[in-house]
Design brief:
- The chain is 72% helix and 3% strand.
- The chain is mainly alpha-helical and 572 residues long.
- Among the domains are: 239-476, no CATH class; 531-572, no CATH class.
- It has a two-stranded antiparallel ribbon.
- α6 (178-194) runs antiparallel to α9 and α12 runs antiparallel to α17 (417-441).
- It starts with a helix and ends with a helix.
Length: 572
């Protein structure tokens, strides 16, 4: 009997193949299709569901379906023994369905359906393990994303001025209109919260509390890419000032996350920060005007990042849920196939020739160099490339080489056939998807004209990053006063420039402290003294009838005597 995982994985795989074929056809004929479903007519108003099918939608859908099919297949063994496996799989399917609504919607109302669906299901998945850490991470995730949801709702209200919510019709025509500018600002706010750009970056590493298959899906093709995809759809409407603003935010995110990953020791958080860095790269090139290159990198990144998380999940699964890279080492002897996949994905992330990541990253950097903006952008792009290679090689040094640092009584093996099979399904595309997509998406090659030094600059930064990453990994600190400054610096960078403190502790510490003070001094203090409890005690102490209710015989006789005397006085 087929399990629910195999059924859903097979269904999604066939849908992926169908979307890929349609994407090729639509691209060949330069064809777009809009379908309108009239849901309801009410007097003169008609409620219409609009679906936009074009090359971009079909290609993205095929990638999402393919990755989610492999992730569901992978989950069958990773989540083995989980009592609510069916619920977990259905949550992932709901996640994918929400993403589909987002991809095919040229309408702000139906986009909100997918957008909020992603937010709600991601909350359910982040808190899946139901412990304090998961609950905190889930709350941070959902509250950060609510800011963007509110911005999108305000955008819907402003779009009422155009008489329709089908934004696809108005983007270029109304570009200089004030209302469209306001909507663009709101859309950018929504996108930078969903894609975790600064200053909303802290929820992305926190969301690592979710099971690893969820992380694989979230960080490759669904939740965090939703913001980038919305910006790609809206890119015609952005003014120059708005582009500069987005460029600054995304470049800072790219640099900050790359730097932070070099000081992190949690395996999943390092990969999460690398996702953040790549999202910054996509948004940077989009704000420089090349939305097709952003989409190209979005697709190639989805494949190698999904596989990177799957390899990390397999390592964590075999190491009894230990995620600290300092306990790893020499894994290449115990898990050779997983480590091979892991290395290929890391090299693709670094942009080594001629893997899939190279084609998109190298072209992005060369287009940026050709459209030279200023020294800051030029430097931060190349520094971010160097930092990506630096933390990737640090990760390889800690986890794959050297001696095994976990318990000597271990059972590390690659006996998980289902997980290895699902990972093997992705590795071919990690290697060839870059060149394949470039031939498909850019039938006429992009003309790059650069001096030889600029052309080799990316390769030079990759080599420099490799060397620095290797040297930094060997660097040991002796705990003296000199090293305290290093520890302070490393904690500052590892905490992503203290963004989690700003967005969580900074927001909730003072209200919680104030509520504690008020509770102690008022509820348990003065209100208690002057309120119910003390009033009751005071009245009880002052009550004379209380004395009678104690049934003292002496008191009873005294009262009897007083009563007799009272009667005699009245008679005489």
């Amino acid at each position: 009997m087929l399990s629910i995982c195999k059924i859903y994985a097979s269904l999604l795989f066939f849908m992926s193949f169908f979307c890929l074929i349609n994407g090729m056809l639509f691209m060949s004929f330069d064809y777009s299709l809009m379908i309108e479903f009239n849901l309801l007519n009410f007097n003169s108003a008609s409620f219409v569901m609009v679906i936009l099918l074009d090359m971009m939608a079909f290609l993205f859908m095929s990638f999402v379906f393919f990755i989610s099919s492999m992730v569901i297949f992978y989950s069958e063994e990773y989540m083995m023994g989980d009592l609510s496996l069916n619920r977990f799989i259905l949550l992932i399917v709901m996640f994918v369905v929400s993403m589909m609504f987002l991809i095919i919607s040229p309408n702000l109302i139906s986009i909100l359906l997918g957008w909020d669906g992603l937010g709600l299901v991601s909350y359910c998945l982040v808190i899946y393990y139901q412990n304090v850490k998961s609950f905190n991470a889930g709350m941070l995730t959902v509250l950060s994303n609510r800011i963007g949801d509110v911005a999108l709702l305000m955008g819907i209200a402003w779009m009422l001025n155009f008489g329709s919510w089908n934004f696809i019709f108005y983007l270029e025509i109304m570009k200089d209109d004030l209302i469209m500018n306001i909507i663009s600002y709101l859309v950018i706010l929504a996108s930078i919260t969903k894609s975790a750009q600064m200053p909303f970056s802290s929820w992305l590493p926190a969301a690592m509390a979710a099971p690893t298959p969820v992380s694989s899906l979230v960080h490759s093709s669904t939740l965090v890419t939703a913001g980038v995809y919305l910006l790609i759809r809206f890119n015609y409407a952005f003014s120059c000032n708005l582009m500069y603003f987005l460029l600054f935010i995304s470049s800072m995110t790219m640099f900050m996350s790359g730097l932070g990953a070099n000081f992190e020791y949690d395996l999943k958080k390092i990969i999460a920060l690398s996702t953040l860095s790549q999202l910054g790269l996509m948004m940077s090139i989009l704000s420089l005007g090349s939305y097709k290159l952003a989409f190209f990198h979005l697709l190639t990144h989805a494949l190698f990042k999904a596989l990177l998380f799957m390899c990390a999940g397999n390592i964590i699964h075999n190491m009894n849920n230990c995620q600290d890279i300092r306990y790893m080492g020499g894994l290449v002897k115990h898990m050779p196939l997983t480590c091979t996949f892991f290395n290929i994905c890391n090299f693709s992330l670094c942009g080594l020739p001629f893997l899939s990541g190279f084609y998109s990253k190298d072209m992005i950097v060369e287009v940026m160099s050709m459209n030279y903006l200023n020294l800051y952008i030029y430097m931060i792009f190349y520094l971010s490339i160097g930092l990506t290679v630096c933390y990737s090689f640090r990760l390889i040094y800690y986890s794959l080489t050297g001696n095994f640092n976990f318990v000597s009584l271990n059972n590390l093996s690659e006996s998980s056939v289902t997980m290895l099979f699902s990972m093997s399904g992705l590795i071919f595309f990690v290697i060839v998807s870059g060149s394949m997509l470039m031939w498909i998406m850019f039938p006429s090659p992009i003309f790059i004209c650069l001096p030889i030094i600029f052309k080799l600059m990316a390769l030079f930064m990759i080599m420099l990053g490799m060397w620095i990453g290797y040297e930094v990994s060997k660097f040991k600190i002796s705990f003296n006063m000199k090293s305290m400054s290093y520890l302070t610096m490393s904690s500052f960078f590892a905490m992503m420039w203290n963004l989690p403190i700003v967005s969580t502790l900074g927001l909730n510490y003072y209200p919680l402290y104030l509520s504690h003070t008020l509770y102690k001094n008022l509820d348990q203090g003065w209100f208690e003294y002057y309120g119910g409890q003390n009033l009751f005690l005071t009245l009880k102490d002052f009550s004379l009838l209380q004395l009678l209710s104690l049934n003292y015989l002496k008191v009873y006789f005294i009262l009897f005597v007083i009563w007799i005397m009272f009667l005699i006085i009245n008679i005489f």
